[in-house]
Amino acid sequence: MQLLDGVLVSGHIKEQIKQEVTEWQAEGGKKPHLAAILVGNNPASEAYVGSKVKHCEELGFDSTLLRLPADISEAALIAEVEQLNNDDAIDGILVQLPLPEHISPDSVINAITPDKDVDGFHPISQGRMLLGQPTFLPATPYGIMLMLEYYKIDTTGMHCVVIGRSNIVGTPMTILMSRNGNPGNATVTMCHSRTKNLKEHTLSADIIIAAIGRPKYVTVDMVKPGAIIIDVGINRIDDPTKKSGSRLVGDVDFDDVAPISSYITPVPKGVGLMTICGLMKNTLLAAKLRGR
Ligand code: NAD
Questions:
Q1: How far is the CA of 89 from the centre of ligand 1 (A)?
Q2: For the segment 57-66, what is each residue's pLDDT rounded down to a tens digit?
Q3: Does the pLDDT of residue 148 top 70, yes or no?
């Protein structure tokens, strides 16, 4: 078993990004500038946004964090997005999900101008991805592709089972893994909450990408020996042995599955770090495409 090490790969990619930013600035370009919108004070969202802002500093990007109250109206939030759309200093906009119940995430995402859609969630970005055109790829699936690429894992002809069909992870992952390219060229099965006999599908998988949101849901009896395991899940479970009383685990039962897998991502320090790389690469690309 080999660990797909998010710390190692993201460190390597961040060095490349830093270098590219330096070169871009030497050519007269401005620092890439990411604007993040955080609505309310969900602790997990606070942590994710905080990490994204910190990475901006580390990579030589500018960042703006807009904190908005949980009771903001959808119209007022969209007005904030539009202001960022029209602000020439901003290259990339991200709205941290989830949003409060009374706000439609689709309406807010649709309001982001596609040339600043660095999370890759806008219908235009997703449509371009579907058609294989250059675009901002959704950050998590993009990060996973970068990780497979780094380890030179040839997925051609593999059976890839993606568990989860969200617009931000599961669905785009199926598109990227089946695209004509490497990583890609896989035969893909998408499984979801209504799939019957999930285990029948996963047992025939050469690569499993789990994006479910259920702690340790993929157990060793569901995995073919030698399979590649990409664990996207981030779940907090009680752990009285920890000072905080809890810890993070993935959607895969790592301790049991790791020994029979060929490659596996840990949680934490796996896919989460790669998501940030995807976001940062998109932000740099946005700055370059805007030609500032
Ligand atoms: P989501 O809730 O939108 O989607 C979960 C998907 O899992 C759904 O499509 C559903 O059909 C499927 N599902 C639920 N129960 C199932 C079951 N019993 N069997 C098969 N499929 C089932 O979640 P999401 O936004 O796609 O995120 C999934 C997980 O990944 C969460 O834990 C989330 O925190 C994590 N996540 C991590 C990163 C990262 O950077 N590592 C990024 C985004 C999401």
A1: 34
A2: 999 999 999 9
A3: yes
